[in-house]
Specification:
The complex is a heterodimer of chains A (370) and B (329). Chain A is an alpha+beta fold and 370 residues long. Chain A has helices spanning 2-9, 12-15, 18-28, 30-52, 154-190, 192-206, 210-219, 227-242, 244-258, 261-268, 273-309, 321-325, 331-336, 344-364; strands at 73-76, 79-91, 98-109, 111-121, 125-133. Chain A has 14 helices and 5 strands. Classes of the chains: A alpha+beta (370), B mainly alpha (329).
Chain lengths: 370, 329
């Protein structure tokens, strides 16, 4: 009631478009707005992964195996000039473990927009500039998040992993969306026997434990396939079982809308079926589809991470969150080098952000309700 | 009511059929066939399989025939309980899987029961004391439970157990009882080890159930009959437990169908992290070694197990919810 009273005072609500109403509704959900910012940040990392990375993610160096994250000193004296200390590596004579001691006499300054390895920014512009870096000398480097067993820089690998993990989720959800909209649309628009068959198929798919099935399908991918082929195959495998929820939403919308006045009148004035569906019906539940898609993304991300974690999904040299977490499979390893668990943080943050964003979008999708 | 159960039963049979086809696809997918991998394996161990032997094997397994014929042959064997030989273990698949399947069932069912035991009181509390500190706490833990993939949760718990208590949390038995015969001591040992894996597996489901319970109960609590009950002088506990909770419970029961496949799925990957003696580690090993009969059988049995569980929950639901019972007659 309070909402209705407030709306009467503001005449602009009467002339606002549907998308404007949704935006106003969405804006009220503070956590969802914050999540939208986080998600946007993630996709900026996807775009600029090579710019944000400062080391070649595949450059390995046995001398730097399993280095802990370095502490960053932000101020040198009173001036702002971040630097890290150099380090000395040695082997512990008792445990044979490599230990690293910071060497305070060596200061490695961190430079902004420094020169580094060559890449194409956004896949187009060849450049060697990176957000941060160090001066030329190869022996002086920084390891913000430490290194893995092969001495590769975890921060840079995490940037590249984010790119793969988030795009695979996006591609997977797009494929699911196509399947879900087509099948859910058929089911809801025609009803009858088609509806029954599709609904039963969905019920069957939903009652099968998916992980063993995914594992089986993923393990059957030929070993000699390239990284790119495996990448697309995993996307297809994940989306083949992930479309059911989207189809359910689309069907529900179609059923609810079939009898709406504007749809009936569109039919009565002689619109073709295609025109009724795509010009009149689809735009009015677009927002619901977007919300459902956002809510489907976390499952995709977790699936890829889980499969790669088991060694059945993406395989090195591909880098994804799951591939990075493979290094953390063994408790003993993690107990000695806890920073190998760091890649689990973006997984959790991304899943949460997508969930909250999806929740907010779902509430905003129907601005006329309540 | 019978019609409803009958329909669920037919659907369950279709599901089992679909799972069998998918399992067969998994068995068939890798390039080459059983015999060529067998020959390669023998060659790697230094012995040679002659062409005649290979031919005999191919005829025995019906390879080279159309795929659907092979499927029917496989199914005929499966129905009488012969799942083929595990190449890696050189033993019948049933023997290899053996007790591990029951461990999977045990862990999944424990997780399911734990989900309810936790979600029911917490859900009721969250609804009755809406916006209290406890409600926010439950909601917060619920979100964590939903957002953290269970294998990561297992990893984190394992890590803290190791660092803080120097205890290895994984496994289902203490090392000294691992290979012992079943005894009261071993059962007690199992009971002590079970809660952590069950909690890890059940957490996401619990979070979801709490949200469902809370939302349903909140809807019910606002209805006039609750006010009536209260105004007639019933105690608050009785007002809440006798009517609204019972109504709110129905959707609660109907979600087993979705929760169970999820838990079984999760048990595979959590078992790998925690080193539990379920079919999970076996499945991964079989898949990596391309021991396809073993892998296919595990996928098939897990699927069938889930379908049976779901069917039982459907029948329970009919028993609990009179609306379904009456609607179908």
């Amino acid at each position: 009631m309070a909402v209705a009273a407030a709306t009467l005072d503001s005449p602009r609500i009467f002339v606002a478009s549907q998308w404007q109403l949704m935006w106003w509704r969405f804006r009220k959900h503070k956590i969802a707005v914050a999540s939208a910012v986080v998600v946007a940040g993630f996709y900026l990392v996807v775009l600029g992964a090579d710019f944000l990375a400062y080391a070649d993610p595949d450059a390995s160096e046995a001398q730097r195996s399993l280095m802990p994250p370095q502490r960053v000193y932000w101020f040198d004296g009173w001036s702002f000039s971040p630097y890290v200390h150099g380090f000395k590596g040695a082997r512990d004579p008792l445990t044979f473990k490599r230990v690293y001691v910071p060497d305070p006499s060596v200061k490695v300054p961190i430079r902004f927009f420094a020169e580094g390895f060559e890449y194409r920014f956004l896949g187009l512009i060849p450049t060697t500039r990176h957000l941060i870096g160090v001066d030329g000398d190869a022996t002086k480097t920084i390891f913000l998040l430490g290194t893995d067993v092969q001495g590769r820089d975890l921060w840079s690998r995490l940037m590249y992993g984010t790119r793969i993990s988030l795009t695979i989720g996006l591609l997977g959800v797009t494929a699911s969306l196509v399947l879900g909209v087509v099948l859910g649309g058929l089911s809801g628009f025609y009803g009858g026997a088609i509806d029954t068959v599709i609904q039963r198929v969905i019920e069957i798919l939903r009652s099968i434990p998916t992980i063993p099935l995914w594992m089986g399908l993923a393990a059957a991918l030929p070993r000699e396939w390239t990284v790119l082929q495996v990448y697309f195959a995993i996307t297809v495998i994940i989306s083949l079982l992930g479309w059911t929820e989207l189809a359910r939403v689309v069907r529900g919308r179609f059923l609810a809308m079939r009898e709406e006045d504007f749809v009936v009148s569109a039919r009565l004035v002689g619109c073709t079926q295609m025109r009724t569906i795509f010009v009149h019906m689809v735009p009015s539940f677009m927002s619901h589809i977007i919300a459902a898609t956002t809510l489907a993304l976390p499952a995709m991300i977790i699936s890829e991470t889980a499969l790669s974690f088991l060694g059945l999904g993406l395989r090195p040299p591909a880098i994804s969150w799951g591939v990075l977490l493979q290094a953390a499979q063994n408790v003993q390893t993690v107990a000695i080098s806890p920073w190998l668990m760091i890649p689990s943080i973006p997984v959790i943050v991304a899943v949460m952000a997508f969930n909250f964003l999806g929740d907010g979008l779902r509430d905003a999708a129907d601005p006329y309700g309540r | 009511m019978l019609a409803y159960i009958g329909r669920r039963f037919v659907l369950a049979i279709f599901t089992v059929w679909a799972i069998s086809v998918l399992s067969f696809v998994i068995i068939q997918l890798p390039p080459g066939d059983y015999v060529s991998s067998y020959i390669a394996q023998m060659a790697s161990m230094g012995s040679v399989v002659s062409d005649e032997e290979a031919q005999a094997l191919r005829i025995q397994y019906g390879l080279g025939q159309p795929v659907y014929v092979q499927y029917v042959k496989w199914m005929k064997q499966v129905v009488v309980g012969n799942f083929g030989m595990s190449m890696e273990w050189k033993r019948p698949v049933t023997e290899v899987i053996g007790a591990r399947l029951w461990m999977t069932v045990l862990i999944s069912v424990s997780a399911l029961i734990l989900t309810w035991v936790l979600a029911l009181p917490i859900g009721i509390y969250s609804a009755v004391r809406q916006y209290s500190f406890g409600d926010y706490l439950a909601t917060f833990i619920g979100f964590i439970g939903l957002a953290v993939p269970n294998f990561l949760l297992a990893l984190v718990i394992l890590y803290f157990g190791f660092v803080l208590f120097n205890a290895h949390i994984g496994g289902l038995f203490s090392p000294e009882l691992q290979d012992a015969e079943w005894s009261a001591a071993k059962v007690w040992d199992l009971a002590k080890h079970l809660p952590i894996p069950a909690l890890i597996l059940g957490l996401a489901g619990t979070a979801q159930q709490i949200r469902i319970m809370r939302a349903n109960l909140l809807d019910e609590l606002r209805k006039p009959y609750v006010v009536t009950a209260r105004s007639k002088g019933l105690t608050e506990t009785r007002v809440i437990l006798k009517y609204p909770v019972r109504v709110a419970l129905n959707p609660f029961a109907s979600t087993i169908g979705y929760t169970l496949p999820y838990i079984v799925s999760g048990s595979i990957i959590v078992s790998l992290v925690l080193g539990l003696p379920t079919v999970g580690p076996l499945l991964l090993k079989a898949l990596i070694a391309q021991d396809m009969f073993l892998a296919g059988t595990i996928v098939l049995l897990l699927g069938v197990m889930t379908v049976i569980g779901t069917l039982i929950s459907d029948i329970l639901l009919v028993w609990i919810d009179p609306r379904i019972r009456l609607e179908e007659t």
